[in-house]
Amino acid sequence: MSDNYEISINHGAKTISAQSGESLFQALTRNRVFIPTACGGRGICGLCRLKITEGAQQPNDTEKKHLKDHELQDGMRLACQSLVKNNLAIEIPEAYYQASQYRVKISKITQLTHDILLLRCQAVEPKFIHVEAGAWMLFHAPPSDICPDGVKRSFSIASDTRNKQALEFIIRRTPKGLCTKWIFEQMQVGDEVTLEGPHGDFRLHDTPKDAIFIAGGSGLSAIRSILLEIKSQKIPKRATLFFGAVSRRDLYLLDELQTLEKDIPGFTFIPALSAPAADDNWQGETGLITDVVAKHLQDAQNKEAYLCGSPGMLDACIKVLSSKGMPESAIFFDKFV
Fold it and tell me: What is the per-residue DSSP string for 212-230?
């Protein structure tokens, strides 16, 4: 029989029991305290970070890879890498208490481009879902011949968060992604899956600054949700969305975004193609999205930016924004793992 230990959370606000040898991530999940993860607790994403105030073990190589020296010295660890060998005291953001698991049914699948779809999920149990614009949910793909053990991946919420009974996700197929392979090849309307969240700290900030949104590919997902929130809550913020794609076939939801230009005061939508095809008849902006941003943005000192896309795109955008005077503290991003 294995030993049991106690984990005290946020100075005794909650105490759970853990089994000797299991990871802190496993113990928390079993007790329905859901820590953010994009890799399902495999030590790849480095998102399941928390502070161990009592009983911390020495960090392993994976933790040293994802956490800075001063963070490690301050007790920061990865929940998936910290094994329970004694009683522990930890600190986590209160927002983690709002994360939960939801059983949902796939209600609609809309093909947006050759490799991007819009997925709509209807709540089954519980009936209402806690959602936040900009957040992401962990999607549990069930066991199949594609992924015999099932697989978990994170996808940003794309829908209007006023609807607590249905969620939408904009999902792009990744070449080697087991989860997206199952979604694109086997998932059917009526299938039930489990979602876990909401997670992440990508949110619209309550400031008077103009907002610059930059998205590439399926990175439009979280930004779409934020824009719908700006519309529904009539948030007084001037905003510009730069949406980059390779050719016309890679753009989607253009009609919706152009309608938002009319519905949101002070909102401007600027799509751009980096390599339009000869038959695209494209009259809009061309070139890398960073070049288009640089062309339209003269002075960014008193603006803030929200970025969603690949790590390479984000790094390039940050350089452009910084060169225009935007401090890094005003640049917020949701970088795909």
Answer: EEEEEGGGHHHHHHHHHHH
What distance in Å separates the CA atoms of residue 323 and residue 183, rounded to the nearest whole number? 40
Residue 337 has pLDDT above 50, yes or no: no
Q: In what order do the strands lie in the sheet with 14-19?
A: 14-19, 4-9, 88-91, 49-54, 76-78
Q: Using the 8-state DSSP alphabet, how is residue 323 labeled?
A: H
Domain end, chosen from 77, 95, 113, is at 95
* Domain tally, the chain: 3
d(CA 300, CA 267): 17
CATH code for position 32: 3.10.20.30
DSSP class of 135: -
Mean pLDDT is lowest, of 105-119, 153-167, 182-196, 323-337, for: 323-337
Phi, psi of 305 (to 5 degrees): -125, 145
Average pLDDT on 40-68 reads 92
Of these ranges, 59-68, 193-202, 326-335, the one predicted with the greatest mean pLDDT is 59-68
Within a domain: residue 26? yes
What three-state secondary structure class fits 18? strand
Cα 257 to Cα 243: distance, rounded to the nearest angstrom: 10
Residue 38 banded pLDDT, cuts 50, 70, 90: confident
Q: Are 193 and 121 in contact (CB under 8 A)?
A: yes
The token pair that represents 20 in the structure block: 């000797």
